[in-house]
Amino acid sequence: MKNIVPVFFISFFLLSFQSFAQDTIQLMNGKHIVANVVKTDDLFLKYRKHLTADTGNIVAIEKADVFSIIYHNGQKSILYKQDTAKGYDFTTEQMNQYILGEKDAFHYRPGFLLSVAGFAVGVTAGYAGVYGLAAVPAYSMFLGIIDPKIKPKKVSHPDLIGNKYYTRGYHTVTTKKRVIVGAISSLIGYTAMSSVYYYLINKK
């Protein structure tokens, strides 16, 4: 009886560990998915995003969107392959550096002054009416042209700041964020000014 109890707890622990052990799917866009990989074929990777490997709905994603898989046992499988004919010009290491840049950029937050400036641009454009609406996309495009400086203390891989592939991945994400912030802030300013202007005109 004394031996049964320890064996029971050990078996329970092993089963629990197996249930919670999950794989990490590293995507090409820098994001990752923690799930149980079920199957991979020539075109798709199938996984269950659940705590256990035998329950939950199966989700399929294209293998072209996946860089690598780190299995729960520590084994790593690289799915990405350089193929210039398909537009995959980077080597495996270069693409890995690019993805590291994307991942670090997820922590980037556009400065508050960009939003204030965008709102001011929108207000000014709203005063011009329909003709000023073009200022909204123009401001967003302007923000997209300027690459923000990468601050060593704000990233997980400061040693890669001088690496062009890392930098390119970082700026790909930050550019999207800045463009979105610029579009939203300037559009809010434009809408606010247009509403006020319309109200004042009709009040007379």
Overview in brief:
By secondary structure, this protein is of the alpha+beta class.
- How many distinct beta strands? 6
Largest sheet: 6 strands, antiparallel
Number of helices: 5
Beta-strand residue fraction: 15-25%
Instruction: Please mark out the parts with pLDDT under 50 across 5 or more consecutive residues, or reply none.
Output: 5-19
Q: Which whole number gives the mean pLDDT?
A: 86
Total domain modules? 2
Radius of gyration: 25 Å
Distance between the termini: 93 Å
Side-by-side strand order of the widest sheet? 4-3-2-1-5-6
Helix content: 40-55%
Q: Name the helix and strand elements from N-terminus to C-terminus, one letter apiece.
A: HEEEEEEHHHH
Can you tell me the overall shape?
elongated
Structural class: alpha+beta
What descriptors fit this protein?
16% strand, 5 helices, elongated, SH3 type barrels, alpha+beta, 2 domains, 204 residues
Account of the 3D structure:
The chain has 204 residues and is an alpha+beta fold. It folds into two domains: 4-80, SH3 type barrels (Roll); 104-203, no CATH class. It contains five helices and six strands; from the N terminus they run H-E-E-E-E-E-E-H-H-H-H. Strands 4-3-2-1-5-6 form a six-stranded antiparallel sheet, covered by helices on one side. The longest helix has 40 residues, at 164-203. Residues 5-19 have low confidence and may be disordered.
